[in-house]
Fold each of these.
Amino acid sequence: MKNIYFILIIATIISSCKKNRNSVSWNTFYKLPISSDTLNLNSFIKQDKLYLSDDGTYLSFKDTFELYELGKDIINQSIQLDFVDSIKIPSILSGIQFSPGFQIPYQFTESHYFDFSSIELKELQFDSLIFDYTVESSIGGKIDINLSILDALNPIGNNFNALISTPISQGVSTGKLNLNGFKFDLTKNGTVFNHISTLFTIGISSDNTQDLVFQNNDYIVIKFEISSLKIASALGYLGSENIVDTTEIKIPFMENLKSKNFEINDSEFEILIKNGIGIDAQLKLNKIDFKKENQVVTLDHLSINQNININRALDLGHDFQYSEMNINFNNSNSNLPQLISMFPEQINIDYQLLTNPLGNQSGYNDFMYQQHPLSLNLSVDIPLKQNLDSIVFLDTLNYELPKNIAVNDALIKLDFTNEFPWKCCAYLKLMSGEILNSSPICINHCQVDNLGNFVQATNSINELDLDNDFLIELQNDNRIIIELVISSPDSTNYFPILGNKNLFYSINMDVNSKINLN
Amino acid sequence: MKYLTILFLIIAQIKCYSLKKDSISKKTTKVEVISSFYGSVGSTHLPVNFFNKIYFGGFIDKSEKGNSYSIAKTQRSGFETDMNFGVNIYQENSELNGWYFSLQNKISAAGKYQQGLYDLIFRGNEDLNQQISIGNTNFHFRNHQLINFGKFYKNFSLGLVIGNILQEYNGSFGENDLIDFNSNYNWNVVVNPNISFIRNNNSAFKKNGNSLGLNFKIKDDFKSTDLEYELEIKNLGVMFLHSNIETINYDTSFTYSGLSFHQITNINNLSSEISTPFQPYTSSNRIISSTPFEVKFNVVKSINNLELFAGTFYRNNSQYLPNSYFGFNYRNKKKLNYGSNLSYGGYNKFQWGINTSYSTEKINAQIILQNCIGLIPSLGKSLGIVLNLNWKIK
């Protein structure tokens, strides 16, 4: 009996340790609220971008987008500050023993003039400036070199000083110099432009273990190369450059939209040119293309391919004045309606900008500050009084369904109450192309009067019965293609939209599911 | 832990054999080795097959979910295991007085809840259409290691219990908490959970909680009768949860009628958005509470070979309904004895149990089946099994 007991106990425990336990599962039937909400224009557009029309019958969408900005780039490419300093040890010092720590009573100065193409600068300030330097020495010991750039002042007015050293014996050493925040006076006391002078003193490094004797023709060569720079401001003559470029503006959201016809009443676009640089300029918009898939439509407007003169900004010390001008595009002076209705996914602006077209008109008083660029902005004013004909919104929605719930079948119930003058029908497709809803799920537009004004909301109820095969595919794919087709009640009126109009909806689901717990 | 337990059992058996076969024969009056295992699972409404599926896995079909009851009916379910290994060391020249020492591992889990909450999870909300109260819902899961030691006499024993708390989870909800399904697609939820977790610490000795309790047992006859009584209190004391206490405690009420448009169109971020407010947070508070002590009172009357007994049993802080029972044992003057009993309480309701014991001079084994009907899993509406194997060698 006792033996049986032992065997029973051990067998019971070992059997309870089996690892191949199956998952626990059971069927449930849930009535689940999936989503319900009230949508209006503010659900998609910020309140401060919407304005009520003067007669109070419709809203307008007004906003400004940045198209292009030109600032320090105007001179960045031309600023090359690389230079080389050579220190030749005076022959009078050769043959004399100098003990470690001895300061040689000589100063070595060098002037450097830079060619910045047509740019002649009086002053240049950097947010950041890093030099890489290389020191090559023929001297048989280590030399300490004190470098001063007397024309470079930091924000508290001290000039730049740095200690660099040669190798311990003949050879090359390298390092970095940090001149972040330094302002360079490039005029050599008001007489020239684009100039920097350097001053060196040298001494026998204390790292040497014995006295150092210079040889005849001993030299030190120091090369400075810009590692990185960011210009904060520049004064002088900023030169005359002809910048030719193409700016591409992508509008990814538009990739999902197509339309048979889309008409907006009296929309208005403006290009705002705002010049914060102290130079005159001439802008020429060679071409502005609106692109949709393979279709390209070019903007027609008087300003295209014409020189647009831009005046310089004014810095009065106590006051800074931008130079501003606007170019207006509307239905009567351009082909704007055609461009809007194509829902462009990319806009290409082909332009050229000539700076200082008349040369050094300011007498070396051009200026450029990082915080005051030349910018091109697009201002839009779109009255929400429109007529839509089959606007198609096509997108792929990603989702993740819980893996431990297997849905056997589901009935999705959709209930919409619509106060907008839009009819919207939805088609849902699996990635395989199979359509989930044999008939479209449609939300009827609100009731409108003969002028297109709101009369009464309409209610639309739909049901979508999903069988097991569809649900398995939905659970495995984690993606669904949704196609929305939106149209106005008729093709004759412009239908106004007001801020107090809503779309109420609720989506519920009756789901027969199997829950698995591992 | 499972492998350690197996190893320990095997070692214990080997030790016992060795004691029996050689030195034990010389020390039978000095040392008694004791091991016992106790396990039970029970519910007021769930059939046996439900627990089979939960433990072994598989699909829980309609019949295994139990009968339908009023959703307001309070139900209880739970399981527990108790393993105990130790020694009784007798004083010289005495077979009645001595010292005891044992190592014990107790694991239990239980819940008290309304039928409606169970239905919501295992059947869905299709037929609910009313309000479910979760105000009296509470649950626990605990895993304690206990060291028992003390002194015993003929009719009396007294000792201490020092506990290492490996895991201690306790949860309850606010008195007025509810989920209202009056409208299928518009749920009103009022929840104020108070849940605390103590997880196991990797250190073998330093645990996140400890307990100290008292064991007490008295067994005697009533004067001038042949009625014997037994009163036993186990682990009456305090439990001190001092480190790494995690809690979930918030007070909220909301109406849920679906996700907003913003949430449904940003579904990828939704799970973290929803779960973050409900994540447990580590609390610096310490919790002092009473131990899950047990009280048992039993009376026995012997009439010839028949032994009649009745008693009651209660366990603190464990959703355990006080259990009352009565029954008989028939001693047939052989090694095998048997009996039957009726009981009410615990995690079950009425149960008809049978018990049998096998006793020799050195071995005593006892099996009690609390509910015979539970042996037929598809018929039994509830199950209560106590497997109590006492094992001793003198």
Amino acid sequence: MAGALGKDLTGLRHLSAEQLRLVLDTAEPFKEVSERAIKKVPALRGKTVVNLFFEASTRTRISFEFAEKRLSADTVNVASSGSSVSKGETLVDTARNLEAMRIDMVVIRHPSSGAAEFLARRIRSNVVNAGDGTNEHPTQGLLDMLTLRDRLGDLAGKRVAICGDVLHSRVARSNIWGLTRLGAEVAVCGPPTLLPTRVESMGVRVFHRIEEAIGWADALNVLRLQLERMQAGFIPSLREYNRVWGVTAERLDRAPKPLVIMHPGPMNRGVEIDSDVADGPHSVILPQVTNGVAVRMAVLYLLAGGGPDWSDAGGEER
Amino acid sequence: MSVRPVLLRGGRVIDPSRGLDEVADLLLADGQVAAVGRDLGRPDDAEEVDVAGRVVAPGLVDLHTHLREPGGEHMETIATGAMAAVAGGFTAVCAMPNTDPAMDNEGVVGFVRRQAERAALARVYPIGAISLGQRGEQLAEFGEMVAAGAVAVSDDGRPVMSSHLMRTALEYASAFGIPVADHCEDLTLAQGGAMHEGEVSARLGLPGIPAAAEEIMVARDILLAELTGGHVHLCHMSTRGSVELIRRAKDKGIRVTAEACPHHFSLTCERCEGYDTNAKMNPPLREAEDRDAIRRALADGTIDVIATDHAPHHYDAKEREFPDAPNGIIGLETALALALTHLVHAGLLPLRDLVLRMSTLPARLFHLPGGTLAAGSPGDVVVFDPDVEWVVDPSRFFSKSRNTPYTGTTLRGRAELTLVGGRVVYRRAGP
């Protein structure tokens, strides 16, 4: 079944502004479901969702699982280790076997860019990309946008700087596509070794100094620095990274205005972000996590063919 | 074994080796070109074929083919590859050594020759490995491989990273009069890239291979050719920077020759959108400026020849996530049409230069028989219709593999008749 988003959510790149707003608007009432004593609506009752994770994930997988359960879907988790995946079965065969058991949706996390789109074109079930290689992580992008909208209002004209390892970040790409589509100004900031070649062609401004980004932005989205990037020679040391690009209270104090601070997690405290910033008054890192469940509920609900009036459909079980 | 003579009547005979381009008859007898001229008499036992409106040329010669045998027979065999070759108008192909086991000794070279003789289709000339196991460490036995039939050496697919080894190979190869063909790629710079590095790779979140990864090795190879006086042949050139380096080297008189592949003058990296693994090859599809530079380089001769880099892969290997799929596409059955469509009909290359770059010069660079219609030369001939439009349908290919990005594309021009050693080995049937 295909709703307003189409059959799948493989990325934000090809979504229209209307579709993005629809997801964010649909997420608003779902926020409230998680605040109830009984955190459940029957919107996806009878639907079967498989969480197919080919990479380790704690936060995203649990967030999807909560979203599915709070929508009353039946869920199964398949991890790459201990399954047929580790016996050499291809991605498509794995998914088709699951589909033969009559499932409705696949949430996929995979280390290869394009894997979600690849799968979406080959199975009938709805596919939700939970992160594919260094391509996209669309529900993370949406939850970042929802969190920003909570704090800043309409995103048009707002300035968001994405800081750190943009080169290897699927979060960065989803943020860039989604935010620019809604009219926000986006910058990337980091060492040139960790920014993609020709990144400016994606419609973003480039800063190499964190102070410049802080002086320019309304919000910072601070990316996790994978520790293995140092071994791969992209940066000389974590210590220097923190000293040159770390988001510190000292640097933020010099900003003309308080900035909203986001981080997709998991954080390396003392590397890309200091604890007094992460835990400070302008951090929205935990609200991001809360919004993640609501956004994922909205995406699953819309892909299942739901319309904006979901609360009517689920009324009788309140 | 005697072969029935064949008289090709009234075609446009193009033979750049002799500056010939005129409507004439061509007679093949005793496996050789017997005569070219007007109104040739038909020997009693000869088959006469009316080829009016068609081009008659020396058979195409491909300097860069992967036939996969031994070791990869599920992708291609020497017999299926040789059949694909003749269907594409090629009468000779040079087989790259990245087989399993690698073609790094006279035994494997001899095996490939024997399999080709058994198939009796296109001629197959083995290219021996530069290093044992293509590991880039120890020189393979060039002398024994040449004695067994190797016509060049290359570690294609496994770039020769050691400049010392490359120098040694160029020096040692010159004793046997064979070129060293190099796959130019600085692996430390390309590291794990899946496509050309640029705007499209930034958009798709795929690791990129910068143009400089090729150009650094092109520059190095040119310098080593200058140092050693050896003949370096640069495989599948893909960037405008490489073209510039080659142009300067040729101006200086350095012994460098180069090839380009049809996909690099017909497609760009935009084709990787949608993560189509049939757009994944190495060197990767580049930018429009690179594609245009390759076209111009083929027009002005900076790049000497067109080669296919025919790289069969099984459906299962290509039917997977883009970063994990193998590199390469098949090319033998589309190369002529792509060159006609994108170069000749686009007004960039006269027809006689197409024959020069796909037959005469390839044969000359690797010192192969063929590439000419001079009387007494091997009866290796292609007859093609330069104008006919057709739609690429890989299910009709003779290659064992189907990995092509051109499915459904309309191309112009196609081989109709191919003769090797004066014998018809391919005659196009049906529309």
